[in-house]
Amino acid sequence: MHYKAEVDRGEPGQIAYGAVVPDLPGCFAAGETLEELLANLMAAATLWIECAHDDGDHSHAKPTGFVLDIEVPV
Asked: Is 42:33 a contact under the CB 8 Å cutoff?
């Protein structure tokens, strides 16, 4: 399955990146680099799906999110 993640940069001196997976409520991760963020986010999403499956919740089977890239003239 493919899920969209929303990524934010942290403030200087804090963790560099944070991300959430909107289609998996409460699934989030952070990392000092994009590589670390990706690894942590993959682990968090995998655990989220495994726990949901164990609870009989299969609502994660059909992702609903999407990314919309817009250009705003300044």
From this structure: no
Q: Report if residue 66 sits inside a domain.
A: no
Task: Write the single-letter amino acid at 46.
Answer: T
The whole-angstrom separation of Cα 41 and Cα 62 is 19
Task: Provide the residue-wise pLDDT of the chain in tens; the chain has 74 residues.
Answer: 788 899 998 877 777 999 999 889 999 999 999 899 999 999 999 999 999 888 887 666 567 666 666 788 88
Spatial separation of the C-alpha atoms in residues 42 and 11, rounded to whole Å: 23
**Domain with 35 in it: what CATH number?**
3.30.160.250
* Domain range enclosing 27: 6-58
User: How much is the pTM?
Assistant: 0.75
